[in-house]
Write a structure and sequence with these properties.
Number of strands: 0
Radius of gyration: 16 Å
Number of helices: 9
Strand content: under 5%
Structural class: mainly alpha
Largest sheet: none
Protein backbone atom coordinates (compact mmCIF):
# COMPACT_ATOMS: atom_id res chain seq x y z
CA UNK A 1 0.00 0.00 0.00
CA UNK A 2 1.70 3.19 -1.15
CA UNK A 3 -0.30 5.45 1.12
CA UNK A 4 0.16 5.58 4.89
CA UNK A 5 -2.52 3.38 6.48
CA UNK A 6 -3.31 5.98 9.13
CA UNK A 7 -3.92 8.62 6.45
CA UNK A 8 -6.03 6.18 4.44
CA UNK A 9 -8.08 5.29 7.54
CA UNK A 10 -8.62 9.01 8.20
CA UNK A 11 -9.76 9.62 4.63
CA UNK A 12 -12.18 6.69 4.58
CA UNK A 13 -13.57 7.46 8.04
CA UNK A 14 -14.09 11.13 7.12
CA UNK A 15 -15.86 10.28 3.86
CA UNK A 16 -18.02 7.55 5.40
CA UNK A 17 -19.17 9.87 8.20
CA UNK A 18 -19.93 12.60 5.65
CA UNK A 19 -21.81 10.25 3.32
CA UNK A 20 -23.48 7.80 5.70
CA UNK A 21 -23.29 9.05 9.33
CA UNK A 22 -23.04 6.80 12.34
CA UNK A 23 -19.66 7.68 13.80
CA UNK A 24 -18.95 4.33 15.43
CA UNK A 25 -19.74 2.28 12.36
CA UNK A 26 -17.88 4.69 10.10
CA UNK A 27 -14.72 4.37 12.21
CA UNK A 28 -15.04 0.58 12.13
CA UNK A 29 -15.69 0.55 8.39
CA UNK A 30 -12.59 2.67 7.79
CA UNK A 31 -10.41 0.31 9.81
CA UNK A 32 -11.92 -2.75 8.11
CA UNK A 33 -11.23 -1.26 4.69
CA UNK A 34 -7.60 -0.59 5.64
CA UNK A 35 -7.26 -3.97 7.41
CA UNK A 36 -9.62 -6.32 5.54
CA UNK A 37 -8.40 -9.31 7.57
CA UNK A 38 -10.26 -7.86 10.58
CA UNK A 39 -13.62 -7.43 8.90
CA UNK A 40 -16.45 -8.84 11.00
CA UNK A 41 -20.08 -8.10 10.13
CA UNK A 42 -21.30 -8.81 13.68
CA UNK A 43 -18.87 -6.33 15.23
CA UNK A 44 -19.85 -3.72 12.63
CA UNK A 45 -23.55 -4.30 13.22
CA UNK A 46 -23.17 -4.24 17.00
CA UNK A 47 -21.82 -0.68 16.79
CA UNK A 48 -25.03 0.66 15.22
CA UNK A 49 -26.42 2.05 18.49
CA UNK A 50 -23.19 3.88 19.37
CA UNK A 51 -23.83 6.89 17.12
CA UNK A 52 -23.24 10.18 18.98
CA UNK A 53 -22.10 8.32 22.07
CA UNK A 54 -25.07 6.00 22.54
CA UNK A 55 -28.42 6.27 20.80
CA UNK A 56 -27.72 9.78 19.42
CA UNK A 57 -27.83 11.17 22.97
CA UNK A 58 -24.35 12.78 22.87
CA UNK A 59 -24.09 11.97 26.58
CA UNK A 60 -21.52 9.19 26.46
CA UNK A 61 -18.04 8.75 25.11
CA UNK A 62 -17.55 9.61 21.47
CA UNK A 63 -18.88 6.74 19.36
CA UNK A 64 -15.84 6.84 17.07
CA UNK A 65 -13.52 6.50 20.06
CA UNK A 66 -15.54 3.59 21.43
CA UNK A 67 -15.51 1.88 18.04
CA UNK A 68 -11.76 2.34 17.57
CA UNK A 69 -11.18 0.76 20.98
CA UNK A 70 -13.49 -2.09 19.94
CA UNK A 71 -11.24 -2.79 16.95
CA UNK A 72 -8.05 -2.62 19.02
CA UNK A 73 -9.73 -5.04 21.44
CA UNK A 74 -10.85 -7.27 18.57
CA UNK A 75 -7.14 -7.71 17.79
CA UNK A 76 -5.69 -7.80 21.30
CA UNK A 77 -8.53 -8.62 23.71
CA UNK A 78 -9.54 -11.72 25.57
CA UNK A 79 -11.83 -14.33 24.11
CA UNK A 80 -15.11 -15.62 25.49
CA UNK A 81 -13.82 -19.21 25.46
CA UNK A 82 -10.98 -18.02 27.71
CA UNK A 83 -12.82 -15.45 29.83
CA UNK A 84 -10.67 -16.23 32.87
CA UNK A 85 -7.87 -14.61 30.87
CA UNK A 86 -4.84 -16.01 32.71
CA UNK A 87 -2.65 -14.35 30.05
CA UNK A 88 -4.20 -11.00 31.06
CA UNK A 89 -4.93 -10.06 27.43
CA UNK A 90 -7.62 -7.66 28.57
CA UNK A 91 -4.93 -5.49 30.14
CA UNK A 92 -3.25 -5.12 26.76
CA UNK A 93 -6.56 -3.91 25.32
CA UNK A 94 -7.02 -1.59 28.32
CA UNK A 95 -3.60 -0.02 27.74
CA UNK A 96 -4.22 0.45 24.02
CA UNK A 97 -7.60 1.99 24.84
CA UNK A 98 -5.92 4.35 27.29
CA UNK A 99 -3.47 5.42 24.58
CA UNK A 100 -6.37 6.25 22.29
CA UNK A 101 -8.17 8.14 25.07
CA UNK A 102 -5.01 10.17 25.63
CA UNK A 103 -4.94 11.13 21.94
CA UNK A 104 -8.54 12.34 22.25
CA UNK A 105 -7.71 14.30 25.39
CA UNK A 106 -4.70 15.89 23.71
CA UNK A 107 -6.73 16.88 20.64
CA UNK A 108 -10.17 17.68 22.07
CA UNK A 109 -9.68 18.00 25.84
CA UNK A 110 -12.44 15.43 26.38
CA UNK A 111 -13.74 12.06 25.24
CA UNK A 112 -17.47 12.78 25.44
CA UNK A 113 -19.54 13.42 22.34
CA UNK A 114 -21.31 16.39 23.87
CA UNK A 115 -18.09 18.19 24.84
CA UNK A 116 -16.40 17.41 21.51
CA UNK A 117 -19.40 18.92 19.74
CA UNK A 118 -19.10 22.05 21.91
CA UNK A 119 -15.40 22.36 21.12
CA UNK A 120 -15.82 21.91 17.36
CA UNK A 121 -19.22 23.52 16.74
CA UNK A 122 -19.63 25.90 19.66
CA UNK A 123 -22.44 23.92 21.25
CA UNK A 124 -23.91 20.44 21.50
CA UNK A 125 -27.06 19.36 19.75
CA UNK A 126 -30.09 17.27 20.64
CA UNK A 127 -29.87 15.19 17.51
CA UNK A 128 -33.50 14.09 17.69
CA UNK A 129 -34.75 17.69 17.63
CA UNK A 130 -31.89 19.72 16.15
CA UNK A 131 -30.63 17.58 13.28
CA UNK A 132 -30.77 20.36 10.70
CA UNK A 133 -28.92 22.73 13.03
CA UNK A 134 -26.29 20.05 13.65
CA UNK A 135 -25.78 19.65 9.91
CA UNK A 136 -25.67 23.41 9.37
CA UNK A 137 -22.97 23.73 12.04
CA UNK A 138 -20.77 21.25 10.15
CA UNK A 139 -21.71 18.07 11.97
CA UNK A 140 -21.35 15.89 8.89
CA UNK A 141 -19.12 18.12 6.79
CA UNK A 142 -16.23 19.16 9.05
CA UNK A 143 -16.78 18.36 12.74
CA UNK A 144 -17.76 14.75 13.36
CA UNK A 145 -16.17 13.78 10.07
CA UNK A 146 -12.75 14.86 11.34
CA UNK A 147 -13.32 13.14 14.68
CA UNK A 148 -14.18 9.85 12.96
CA UNK A 149 -11.18 10.28 10.69
CA UNK A 150 -8.89 10.90 13.66
CA UNK A 151 -10.23 7.94 15.63
CA UNK A 152 -9.60 5.66 12.65
CA UNK A 153 -6.17 7.21 11.99
CA UNK A 154 -5.01 6.93 15.60
CA UNK A 155 -6.19 3.33 15.89
CA UNK A 156 -4.41 2.48 12.63
CA UNK A 157 -1.26 4.14 13.95
CA UNK A 158 -1.43 1.98 17.07
CA UNK A 159 -1.97 -1.15 14.97
CA UNK A 160 1.04 -0.24 12.82
CA UNK A 161 3.18 0.60 15.84
CA UNK A 162 2.40 -2.78 17.41
CA UNK A 163 3.23 -4.54 14.13
CA UNK A 164 6.61 -2.75 13.97
CA UNK A 165 7.70 -2.68 17.61
CA UNK A 166 5.76 -5.47 19.25
CA UNK A 167 2.94 -5.26 21.75
CA UNK A 168 5.07 -5.19 24.89
CA UNK A 169 7.06 -2.15 23.78
CA UNK A 170 3.94 -0.25 22.72
CA UNK A 171 1.77 -0.90 25.79
CA UNK A 172 4.61 -0.36 28.24
CA UNK A 173 5.85 2.90 26.69
Amino acid sequence: MSENRGDKAYEIGFEHEKDFGGCAQCAIAALYRVYPRLSNEEVFRSATGLGAGVGLTTLGNCGALTAAVMILSQIHGRELKNIADPERKRFVAYKLGRKLVNRFLDEYGTVTCQEIQKKLMGRSFNLYEEWDEFLAAGGHSTACTSVVGNAARWAAELIEEVEKKGIDEVVNA
